Amino acid sequence: MANLLQVACDLRDPHGGCPWDREQTHKSLAPCLLEEVYELLEILEQGPKEHQREAFREELGDLLFQVVIHAQLAAEKNWFTFSDVAQGIVQKLVRRHPHVYGETIAASSQKVLENWERIKAAERTQKDGHSSVLDGVPAMLPALQRAARLGQKAARVGFDWQTSEDVLQKIGEELSELKNAADPTTREEELGDLLFAIAQYARKLGIDPEQALRVACNKFEQRFRHAEKEVRQSIAAGQNPSAEEWEKLWQKAKLAVNPQGDRASR
Questions:
Q1: Structural class in CATH, domain 2-94
Q2: 3-state secondary structure at position 140
Q3: Closest CA to 97 of 124, 128, 120
Q4: Per-residue pLDDT tens digits for 157-214
Q5: 143-207, what's its fold?
Q6: Could you give the CA distance from residue 232 to residue 234 in angstroms, rounded to a whole number?
Q7: If you ran DSSP here, which 8-state letter would residue 13 be given?
Q8: Is the dihedral of CA 186, 192, 194, 197 positive or negative?
Q9: Are 246 and 227 in contact (CB under 8 A)?
Q10: Taken in order 72, 73, 76, 79, is the CA torsion positive or negative?
Q11: C-alpha distances in Å from residue 208, one per residue of 10, 93, 152
């Protein structure tokens, strides 16, 4: 860790450091952070498998360096150091796990989450007294993931449907309102309400809706690419297949790409 911190310092050294690294700011590095997160997520969603352990290790290192370089930039402004960052998270984790570091006993993971929210609420009150239980859900999250997280946070303080069937009823209501929407603005609003309700249904089922949608996208892409092979030349010539032809190709692709023959993502 000390070596990594020194590398970050060397790269930012105004006398002999890397010209590119010296030009970077917190804002300019943001896309790099996002890219590293998604590269790591790609491995995590696959397992990770034994043969990916080196790639897994490497991606963890890439993400760690993003934390280190941001801490280095902050240290140059005399804001805080990497040591401050590490100490801060240690203190927070110890404070929020009294069942590990104190005398409190947590009988289940649900009880842990309830205690977690109670402790966070106390922390928010100590800070300014105006914070919300919804704090900590970044606006930059993918919208579907953000919807699930907002619902999850609200549910921890009792704001939730009683059962998944209740959410299904809400989905039906939202779908009906979407069908009856009379103008584009209202349709957009109702579609958003429908997607939000679907995200809550996924949460009730214990499913990450963002991951489920990524899986569906991957499945669709694989099947479409397989179907596309047979008509690629026709498409290139400006002769798109008819809806009936696409349906036949799609059914063949379902069997070829997924031998189990489950329902298509269409």
A1: mainly alpha
A2: coil
A3: 120
A4: 889 999 999 999 999 999 999 999 999 999 999 999 999 999 999 999 999 999 899 8
A5: Helix Hairpins (1.10.287)
A6: 5
A7: -
A8: negative
A9: yes
A10: negative
A11: 41, 24, 11
